[in-house]
User: Fold this.
Amino acid sequence: MIDLHYWATPNGYKIRLFLEETGLAHRIVPVDIRAGDQFRPEFLAIAPNNRIPAIVDHAPADGGAPLSLFESGAILLYLAEKTGRFIPQDIRGRAEVLQWLFWQMGGLGPMAGQNGHFNVYAPEKIPYAIDRYVRETARLYGVLDRRLADRDFVAGDAYTIADMAIYPWIVPHEAHRQDLDATPHLKRWFLQVGQRPATQRTYAEATASYSKPLTDAERAMLFGTPPGR
Assistant:
């Protein structure tokens, strides 16, 4: 049994995609990041960076005590290795998946995240910041579009954890001021992944929380240092 400590964000969706694809037994443990659940001691014990998602595997392969992990990329890799699914076993195929997984973690996620922050959440609209992150997000979309010009999925012919990591960060493309018609190969892939039953199940309970206005207290929880922390 896997406990998934989760909220409906792109990084949270990554892990739900994997669990839905594999049918791995799991339990959702909500972490309401607007209410400050990410600062609770019991969550910090497994996720010291106070960010979701995190997991606790109650049946790790070594048969030992429950194993906890934070960081969505590390979790995807752990689950892929645990199940032997959605990551190639050969060295070259594995390398393809890992480099695109790290591309998402180090590039697309942070840049699109800042894009969303300054476009959607920031109380002050700063043109320089908005332009900087919209442009960088567009550049990364271009990288992905060229990559997908001659292959079905990011790492080749098979759907992998690289696709699972990237897809949730393309979902909010409109809020990030990106036009998928400008990247037709990316758009084809995005629509293809969106038709997967596991993807549809993952997003069936999606909410409008991405664009819901924040209160000052919620903004402090998400982007500042809450009082007393």
Observations:
- Residues 91-121 form the longest helix (31 residues).
- The mean pLDDT is 93.
- The longest strand covers residues 2-6.
- Strands lie at 2-6, 26-30, 54-57, 67-70.
